[in-house]
Amino acid sequence: MMGPRQVAQGALFYEFSIEDHVPPDHLLRAMDRFVDLGEIRRHLAPFYSSTGRPSVDPELMIRMLIVGYAFGIRSERRLCEEVHLNLAYRWFCRLDLSDPVPDHSTFSKNRHGRFRDSDLFRHLFESVVARCITEGLVGGQTFASDASLIQADANKQYAAAKDDWNPDRIDATSAPRAVREYLEVLDDAAFGAASEVDPKFTSFADPASQWTGARKGPAFFAYSDNYLIDTDHGVILDVEATRSIRTAEVGATRTMIARTRERFGLTPDRLAADTAYGSGEMLGWLVGKGIEPHIPVIDKSERRDGTFSNAEFHYDPKRDEYTCPDGKALKKYWRKMKKPRDGVGKDGFRKYFARKQDCSACALKQQCTPNQPTRKISRHVHEAARDTARRIVTTDAYADASRRRKKVEMLFAHLKRILRLDRLRLRGPNGAKDEFLLAATAQNLRKLAKLMPQSPAMA
Prior knowledge:
15 helices; alpha+beta; five-stranded antiparallel β-sheet; six-stranded mixed β-sheet; about 450 residues
């Protein structure tokens, strides 16, 4: 028999608890145990006025942003709608059924004001990292670093070629926020000062973003999201936003290692990274800090024509000269200089030359330098660190670190496919930094929820 038609009728009283309608195994229940925002009010207190109308609770806004980045809700307007409708989201945000949801414009007003002035998102991220350390998810021995391109909110159709772009002509007083931020970072090593080469195109909407064709496809404007992780459980220890060029990304790794040591007292025994980080300067910096570089060396000295490679020439550090396979010397200078010179070129290499008469009479000339009158060897100022990295590459520890390094690539895949951060919504260096910090915070919270399951008594 067909049942009666259900007609909605309003009731005068309800007995309803959101707590009873959130499943015990819901991700937000597991994440909520690790969200401690008790210090938020104290951190933000200097940035609020002591008079005026009460503001929206900053803890509510932070919880809503965590929901948005943890579940890939990219629009703040849509986030407000989802929190209004979803009981689990309301429960996590400490909202009852009758509590209003803030307007989406509240987020932008606070983000461009007190949130950035107080560096709130960095404070939030580091508090979650500290919780990961407390829970024993950070070993502190092996770190890995990498960068991933995140498309900027900019279009080539609204851009200028490098010959038509002159930052000196920009009026900062009337420029949009993203352009003002671009002018502020022109001398920043992560942005304007990262390279002397001007980009092929510069976006009018977001001039700090980098025009890049690194994906071997159509070029686009992008920022680089740099991660430093602990490889035991893939916890993100630090995040940095930079231009999408190698020098800026390598510099970001040094910045993140130094900041992790300052904030948490952690210095790794070894760092795993790909070849992009294998420059002599980077390897020398790591070795100087007592960190083993588990990184392939950028080395263009190997020969493929069958002639002697640089490795077959012996270097004597005391005499500062090389000896060739035939026993002849290669020196920087064959005459005595009136003024001492270090011989270091702009590329960071010293060049050592054999004498022409030695090479001309040598029986091994065809195996050594058949097309040049003399043989020369280039040695980097950080060659000792490069040799250290070369020795490490042959060890089992390097193979293990290379496998661990893949965890940072998995985090970037999760960032783009699950959290849907493959294109930025905010513009400017500060917008990129805010989005990267919030996304990394969400990833660490999801990691805590997964690796530290709650007991049945707590569920």
